[in-house]
Design a protein that fits this description.
This protein has two helices and two strands, in the order ββαα. It is mainly alpha-helical. It has a two-stranded antiparallel ribbon with strand order 1-2. A hairpin with a 2-residue loop joins β1 and β2.
Length: 162
């Protein structure tokens, strides 16, 4: 009497892990005290509610992860857009700097041409010219000479850098 003993009778299990009743595939079971048996109605309802809750939770988690993925994709797209805008801005800066350098070169070239012209006029010997040419180039030589003799009001003392 009392506990389980090894016997060869049909209904007595020799090991606690072997089920004593046939288990149908659709019937939920639980292990109690080493025996597997079908669960009761309350436990079955509770388990079904938990499963339903888990399904909703699973769907919710799936949707949130999809939203997170979409958000991540949107972030990546936004980052690419921002990088493209930065590249465009950088290209615009380069174009502006190139244009400024071109203007500086053009101005420098024009100053050089004016200096050559003024130098040519200053080197002319107007004493051997016709009177009409003397009347034309004489005042021009005086104007250029005066401009070179006067100290410049700007920080640059050279008249060639006007």
């Amino acid at each position: 009497m009392g506990g389980y003993t090894e016997s060869e009778t049909f209904g007595t299990p020799s090991t606690p892990g072997i089920p004593t009743t046939p288990v149908i595939e659709d019937t939920p079971t639980e292990e109690v005290g080493g025996l597997i048996r079908p669960i009761g109605r309350k436990a079955a309802k509770k388990k079904a509610k938990e499963k339903a809750h888990d399904l909703v939770l699973d769907v919710l988690i799936k949707e949130l992860s999809t939203l997170g993925t979409a958000s991540l994709k949107n972030n990546i797209i936004w980052e690419r857009y921002v990088l493209a805008q930065e590249k465009k801005a950088e290209a615009a800066k380069v174009k502006v700097e190139t244009a400024k350098k071109a203007v500086e070169r053009r101005n420098s070239y024009q100053r050089l041409q004016r200096m050559k012209y003024e130098d040519k006029i200053l080197r002319m010997n107007i004493a051997k010219m016709y009177p009409e040419d003397q009347a034309r180039y004489g005042p021009l030589q005086e104007e250029i000479s005066c401009r070179y003799r006067q100290p410049s009001s700007s920080s640059n003392a050279s008249p060639f850098l006007d």
